[in-house]
Input
Amino acid sequence: MSVYLKGWLLLGMVALTACQPATKPKDNAHKDTTSTPKPLAQLSQNLTQNLPKYHLHIAAAPNVKFALPIIASEFKEDNPNIDITYSFAPSRVILNDVKDYRQRYDIVLADNQVVPFEIATKILNQASKTFTYTQGELVVYSKKYDMTSSPTATFDGLLMDNQPFSVVVGDMENLSYGIATKEWLINQNLYPRIEQNLIVIDNFLQSVEMVNANQADFAIVSLGQVLNDSRELTVKSASQQHSYAVLPKNSYPAIYQDGIVLKQSDASQKFVDYLQSTKAQEILNDAGFLPICQQTSLLPACKEKS
Output
């Protein structure tokens, strides 16, 4: 980060003397002994080095695996004295980890609202500590089928043709994305018709992996998860095909992802504020999430909402 300095004032002392002898001074009498001013960049660097150092450890849900490192890097540019490390795990795993090792993390970023609330009420006894940092989007993902048409029409067509197919989904009773999935299926009049085709799993992260491994034909998952996985797979195999359809936002309940600060500090508060800023929300939006819109936000997704 650049430190802007408005100016440096060099103070000097002028010694006044009187009655100097009229003799000619020696050649070295006027030798300049003034020290050379340090360059502005060096002075700025010295000031930065003198700031107290902070370290934040963030535990986060895997569906922000692509966005969080970018956000942390941008945050570091503005706050060079704050170092950030992060680890990714399912939210329930993070919850159990916090129960056993509360001092391990400064901030938790979950993929739901339940886990941060449980940490706040059952571990910290401070329900007001949670905050919303993004909103998820649901997609129907497939490697086998072209998802350019409506997912509802795709499922209807398979049912009418009596074709066997399978759809992997997250726990529809306890996971936010799974609960939203069930609501979407009910709203599309699909749930009772394809209930026998559903593969319900506890580890939501395995959904995309199962489709990629041909263990399921479809997955109803987080857009952020698919985009993150697609970027990783593009590096591994450029020829692998991916197809997904984003479901209309008004066809299922909003999926809010909340966080909680475990260790209150100026550094942790700065990061939370940055995470909710327009710049960080734009990064999350590009990574497959809906922004948490502030009144001053200029993001297109926020304008659509207003």
About this structure: DSSP finds twelve helices and ten strands in the chain. The first helix runs from residue 40 to 49.
